[in-house]
Design goal:
By secondary structure, the protein is α/β, with parallel strands linked by helices. It folds into two domains: 24-171, Rossmann fold (3-Layer(aba) Sandwich), CATH 3.40.50; 174-329, Lactate dehydrogenase/glycoside hydrolase, family 4, C-terminal (L-2-Hydroxyisocaproate Dehydrogenase, Chain A, domain 2, Alpha-Beta Complex), CATH 3.90.110.10. Helices cover 45% and strands 17% of the residues. The protein is built from eleven helices and eleven strands. It has helices at 3-16, 40-48, 64-71, 89-93, 117-134, 147-160, 174-188, 223-234, 236-243, 252-269, 313-346; strands spanning 28-33, 53-60, 79-84, 98-101, 139-142, 169-171, 199-201, 208-210, 274-281, 290-298, 301-305. It has a six-stranded parallel sheet, with helices on both faces. Strand 4, helix 5 (117-134) and strand 5 form a beta-alpha-beta unit. Helix 2 crosses helix 10 and helix 5 (117-134) crosses helix 11 (313-346). The protein is globular. The N and C termini lie far apart (50 Å). Bound molecules: nicotinamide-adenine-dinucleotide and (2S)-2-hydroxybutanedioic acid.
């Protein structure tokens, strides 16, 4: 079984056949910040079925008591509690092993992810300030867009609070990998669990760079077909935004992808050697300080960036073409914290 198949089999075991928590490790406390939202609710439901979660902490500015009461009736072992508003955030975070952040507004048709910056930058900065204060040891997985900027914002806020560990901060790009695996499985007419494909770069438009030449099983497509598939993967989020006609962006597939990423984090925390993709502080490409790529995770966070592997000339061109945009988004995030300071960002 390849890595992707192992990961999916693992999630399927956890989600479809809940069982008792592994005896080798303590079940974790996991917080979802933005838990009442389109992603937050189904993600919380998937986490409620995970035997690796002992305590689920649902935080939002509204509606979490209802969501927690509802999910609390699911007959799995974990306990669950809803917390509402900034006064309850410290308790929600206390003792967390993993904090997943899908708080913030989603796109409507015609918007780019960067159009969300003005609102979501402050939300992520404020929540990460609280994480730095109340659970500085936790791993943090950021879903809120624009990920290419919100992760550098989180890093900068946590640095200023003296609580930044680059090994434990992740931008969640798992949905790009999930989509690429699904689309390739349809083309090759194979089970998606038997597909593996790297998707690197960032999480917006051309910064999403699938490395289709490394697809397993291999893709037998023309240059033109490869370019079309690359474009479909890059624009898959927009495909969903347009189909939802103003009612938001991907929520259910994102919840699935975030549950896969959370499961990877919790398995790594429990001592498993785990390989997964995420957007992190990086040294893979010279002068690109944050990048999504293949990571080895261990109990203390990212152990190793596994590199990009052999690239086709089209893939190298795609990386060269997206780098200025990615660098611009990273700089915008860092400058946001530098200019406004964390206090202002929290207002
Ligand atoms: N990384 C990815 O691959 C990916 C995929 C899909 C969506 N997203 C992003 O995820 C974010 C959430 O999307 P959604 O569809 O769930 O949106 P949504 O509007 O349905 O839910 C967002 C939730 O965040 C809450 N919220 C707002 N401010 C908050 C704060 N300060 N503290 C805590 N909670 C707060 C809201 O009350 C709401 O419940 C968006 O920014 C979207 O672009 C990222
Ligand atoms: O497209 C969006 O705005 C949401 C998300 O980033 C996605 O890829 O679905």
């Amino acid at each position: 079984m390849n890595q992707a198949a192992k990961r999916l089999a693992h999630i399927a075991d956890h989600i479809l056949a809940p069982m008792s928590a592994p005896s080798s490790s303590r079940a974790a406390k996991v917080a979802v910040l933005g838990a009442s939202g389109g992603i937050g609710q189904p993600l919380s439901m998937l986490l409620k079925t995970s035997p690796r979660v002992g305590e689920l902490s649902l935080y939002d500015v509204a509606n979490t008591p209802g969501v927690a009461a509802d999910l609390g009736h699911i007959n799995t072992g974990s306990s669950i509690k809803g917390y509402v508003g900034p006064d309850q955030l410290p308790e929600a975070l206390q003792g967390c092993d993993l904090v997943v952040i899908p708080a913030g507004i989603p796109r409507k048709p015609g918007m780019t992810r960067d159009d969300l910056f003005n609102i979501n930058a402050s939300i992520v900065a404020g929540l990460c300030q609280a994480v730095a204060t109340h659970c500085p040891q936790a791993w943090v997985a950021i879903i809120s867009n624009p990920v290419n900027s919100t992760v550098p914002i989180a890093a900068e806020v946590m640095k200023r609070a003296g609580a930044y560990d680059p090994k434990k901060l992740f931008g969640v790009t798992t949905l790009d990998v999930v989509r690429a695996e699904k689309f390739i499985s349809e083309i090759n007419k194979v089970d998606p669990k038997d597909v593996s494909v790297p998707v690197i770069g960032g999480h917006a438009g051309i910064t999403i760079v699938p490395l289709l030449s490394q697809s397993q099983p291999p893709l037998k497509l023309s240059e033109d077909e490869l370019a079309k598939l690359t474009s479909r993967i890059q624009n898959a989020g927009t495909e969903v935004v347009e189909a939802k006609q103003g009612a938001g962006s991907a929520t259910l597939s994102m919840a699935y992808a975030a549950a896969r990423f959370a499961d990877a984090c919790l398995r790594a925390q429990a001592g498993e050697d785990v390989v997964e993709y995420a957007f992190v502080q990086s040294s893979v490409l010279p002068n690109v300080p944050f990048l999504a790529s293949k990571l080895r995770l261990g109990s203390q966070g990212t152990v190793q960036e596994l590199g990009l592997g052999p690239l086709s000339s089209a893939e190298q061109r795609n990386i060269d073409a997206m780098t200025p945009e990615l660098l611009g988004s990273i700089k915008k995030g860092i400058e946001f914290v530098e200019k406004q300071g964390v206090e202002a960002a929290n207002k």
